[in-house]
Design brief:
By secondary structure, this protein is α+β, with helices and mostly antiparallel strands. It has one domain: Alpha-Beta Plaits. It is about 25% helix and about 35% strand. It has three helices and four strands. A four-stranded antiparallel sheet has the order 2-3-1-4, with helices on one face. α2 runs antiparallel to α3. The radius of gyration is 22 Å and the shape is elongated. It starts with 11 loop residues before the first helix and ends in a 9-residue tail after the last strand. The relative contact order is 0.24.
Amino acid sequence: MRTLFRTFPPTCSALRGRSRYGCPQEVTPLRLYEIMVIIVPSIDEGEVKAELKRLNAVLEERGAKVAKTDDWGKRRFAYELNHEIEGYYAVIEVEGDSAAMDEYSRVANLSDKVLRHKIVRLPQPAKSAS
């Protein structure tokens, strides 16, 4: 006679967050971030807007939501950055995860049009007690 073995699903911890066999899937919380980008002044306004669109697309591809892009325009620096004395400033408010911010940082570092960028995680808004 042949013995049949019943296979049991692995434990949830062995799945490392994958949703199989009814185990709860780990959800990465979306956090609020503010990104300041300084773009080289040698390009015109249209190219600046195109570069900002390209950088925002990187965030949206990774599942982040761009809440607002605030274009500050061309401003003079207090000191030289990469032999430049001015640049186009933009501030972007984003709701996303850290993986999206890492990819944004990687793309911004590789771009010749971005002089400098800074990503800051904002505090979560306080939940009202109802």
